[in-house]
Amino acid sequence: MRECLDEARGLLFLARLRGSGEPVGYLYCRLVASGPTFDLGPIRGDVDSLVVSDRARGAGIGTDLLAACSTELQRRGCSYWSIGVVEANSDAARLYERVGFRPWIREMLGRLDQPH
Ligand SMILES: CC(C)(COP(=O)(O)OP(=O)(O)OC[C@H]1O[C@@H](n2cnc3c(N)ncnc32)[C@H](O)[C@@H]1OP(=O)(O)O)[C@@H](O)C(=O)NCCC(=O)NCCS
Question: How many distinct structural domains can be found in the chain?
Fold first, then answer.
């Protein structure tokens, strides 16, 4: 992450509590070249990590971090952003659909050391 920030290939958003300034969450978004396979514009955002501390969840902080990232990406001329989510994390997937993400690429994981 640090390397990407040093080279301006990523955006970091930090959420702090009003008053105390205590950090309660962050979002890190990579700026990636889209490549020739999909027509997504030259650069798209890829939300690499989004975490809100346990006791601050459910209060809109994750939504606000995503909104701030979306605004900055659009300011930079990006038309698309992406995010990965583990299939089992249906709560997070619901949040992402609510802010406009839709299923795109399906990643699959397999064990190499067991018969299938
Ligand atoms: C996913 C996460 C970032 C959401 O942040 P948040 O500040 O709680 O989100 P908001 O308050 O803006 O929105 C709440 C929504 O988040 C989702 N959510 C996911 N996990 C949640 C949790 N543990 N507690 C509360 N909401 C959660 C729900 O969809 C909820 O909306 P709902 O009303 O449909 O149930 C946060 O729960 C988190 O850090 N989870 C652990 C790490 C993680 O799973 N990150 C995503 C990896 S892909």
Answer: 1
Q: Which atom of ligand 1 is nearest to the CA of 53?
A: 39
Decide if 40 is inside a domain. Answer: yes
CA geometry: angle 91, 23, 58, nearest 5 deg: 25
Split at pLDDT 50, 70, 90, the class of 116 is confident
Domain limits for position 63: 2-98
Q: Atom 42 in ligand 1: which residue has the minimum CA distance?
A: 51
Measured between alpha carbons, how far is 81 from 100 in angstroms, rounded to an integer? 10
Q: What is the pLDDT of residues 58-78, one digit of tens each?
A: 999 999 999 999 999 999 999
- Residue 104 falls within a domain, yes or no? no
What H or E segment, with its residue span, contains residue 11? strand 10-16
Atom number of ligand 1 nearest to Cα 85: 48
Instruction: Indicate whether 27 pLDDT > 90.
Output: yes
Please work out whether the CB of residue 53 comes within 6 Å of at least one atom of ligand 1.
no
Q: CATH number of the domain that 41 lies in? A: 3.40.630.30
CA-closest residue to ligand 1 atom 4: 62
